[in-house]
Design brief:
Order of helices and strands of chain A: EEEEEEEEEEE
Distance between the termini of chain A: 37 Å
Radius of gyration of chain A: 13 Å
Structural class of chain B: mainly beta
Shape of chain B: globular
Strand content of chain A: over 45%
Shape of chain A: globular
Helix content of chain A: under 10%
Largest interface: A-B, 27 and 25 residues
Number of helices of chain B: 0
Strand content of chain B: over 45%
Oligomer: heterodimer
Chain lengths: ~110, ~120
């Protein structure tokens, strides 16, 4: 049974660019959540996908969007990158009966 | 508006002694609480949880206590070991459709266990 894997692990982008982050959920998990962790802060909920449908969204602008695929893997897309988007992006997968299992994260730096 | 607060950014404890990490919350609708541990360059790892129908949950060296009237929970680690040194996050959620809904995290407490 593989855990949650995220790619890439590190990324540097220029302000105004677009970025796509990827997450493979743990085997058997149908729910994926994305979190943003800024330096010195706790993770903040971005949104959650359940069986390919968005199932809740945090206080993030529409330029943060996502997808979940039939195999329950997921993407996080961020358009028009801003300097404040620099953070660790965490993906977590789960089912109705389990707690969230997190990946190692993608460190995004916007310059 | 910080709905989950961990007011101690850091805590230092001697090996073998008890570590007590504290967490306060403001939203009375929260009914499920979790603790996660995070090492550098890794994602958070689930440690222990408690639902609002209980006031205590124990798992080996880890015990979580919940005081609903005070909107306060704490994590006790006894005995503390150097491998416990990590950042500990408290998280809260509303349990509908499962324990995996939107998690609201605190800012974390860095625990250092001195040998």
């Amino acid at each position: 049974e593989t855990g949650v894997t995220q790619s890439p692990t590190h990324l540097i982008k220029t302000r105004g660019q677009q970025v796509t982050l990827r997450c493979s959920s743990q085997s058997g998990h149908n729910t994926v959540s994305w979190y943003q962790q800024a330096l010195g802060q706790g993770p903040q909920f971005i949104f959650q996908y359940y069986r390919e449908e968005e199932n809740g969204r945090g206080n993030f602008p529409p330029r943060f969007s996502g997808l979940q695929f039939p195999n329950y893997s997921s993407e996080l897309n961020v358009n028009a990158l801003e300097l404040d988007d620099s953070a660790l992006y965490l993906c977590a997968s789960s089912t109705d009966d389990t707690e969230a299992f997190f990946g190692q994260g993608t460190r995004l730096t916007v310059v | 508006d910080q709905q989950v607060k961990q007011n101690s950014p850091s805590l230092s404890v001697q090996e073998g002694r008890i570590s007590i990490l504290n967490c306060d919350y403001t939203n009375s609708m929260f009914d499920y609480f979790l603790w996660y541990k995070k090492y550098p360059a890794e994602g958070p790892t689930f440690l222990i949880s408690i639902s609002s129908i209980k006031d205590k949950n124990e798992d080996g060296r880890f015990t979580v206590f919940l005081n609903k009237s005070a909107k306060h929970l704490s994590l006790h680690i006894v005995p503390s070991q150097p491998g416990d040194s990590a950042v500990y996050f408290c998280a809260a959620s509303r349990l509908y459709g499962g324990a995996t809904n939107k998690l609201i995290f605190g800012t974390g407490t860095l625990l250092a266990v001195q040998p």
